[in-house]
Amino acid sequence: MSKILLPLLLILAFTSCKDSNSTTEPSGSIDEPANNNAPAAISFTVLKETPHDADSYTEGLMVHDGKLYESSGAPEEDPNTRSIFGIVDPLTGKISVKGELDRKIYFGEGIAYLKGKIYQLTWTNKTGFIYDAKTFKRIGQFSFPSKEGWGMTTDGVNLIMSDGTSNLTYLDPNTFSTVKEVSVSDNNGAVGNINELEYIKGSIFANIYQSADIIRIDPASGKVTGKADFSKLYLEVKTKYPNAEYMNGIAYDSAKNKVYITGKLWPSIYEVRFNN
Predict the structure, then answer these.
(1) Which long-range contacts (CB under 8 A, 24 or more apart) does 142-145 make?
(2) In Å, how far from its chain's centre is CA 205?
(3) What pLDDT digit, counting tens, does each position of 87-138 carry?
């Protein structure tokens, strides 16, 4: 979530990762975990690649009414970025802007759709904004208890947000009071740097900042039940486009059973299928 450029050491670390996924074939078979409590390896298949605005510092993806929406932030050091959200053109990858924040004041973060409204987080202002999902008119704002806002999704009842720690906070969409907090952990303990979120078939999928992993979380217990390693795809993107930064962005189209992923300043969006 830090707004700094990708360090060389991270690239070297990714290079040394196990090459366990593929952009054309189901990724690595499910290996026997090191211990019985370790998350299962999630295999996946990359089905399709479409354009993405390489000036978009992606903070969130979602699908609503058959359209892919994206929200982005605006790092100070990159004047080409904007804190916007809108509908992604599938042919060009450009965002048809439906809302924009003053980049001198706000850094746009995750978005979620719930019951006719679109909710948008900001990074350090402890402020979120509410838009009418049909007109995109800003109809309100809210505050949240976390020090920072990162990713957001919904289970159809509450808003669920991440703040860069290991905690997920459930917010009542009417009062914005905290319904509950869930601490995310795996066999090694608390899992921090939780970023973009997406609720898929009863589980929460999450990007981990400064990582090429997407994890699957049990919403009730906070336990990580699976992990997909996208390091090979990340390196392919980085090779083609050196300015690309960390993975971020997961969207699920429940009507078509499709999942979309991308990253900050990536030139492509990928449709993927999780195989387990």
Answers:
(1) 142/176, 143/176, 144/169, 144/171, 144/176, 145/169, 145/178
(2) 8
(3) 999 999 999 999 999 999 999 999 999 999 999 999 999 999 999 999 999 9
Indicate the pairing of strand 40-41 with strand 224-229: parallel
Distance CA 186, CA 147 (A): 24
Global pTM exceeds 0.85? yes
CB 204 within 8 Å of CB 219: yes
Sorted by where each begins, the domain ranges of the chain are: 8-274
Place of tokens 């981990």: 208
Q: What is the CATH number of domain 8-274?
A: 2.120.10.30
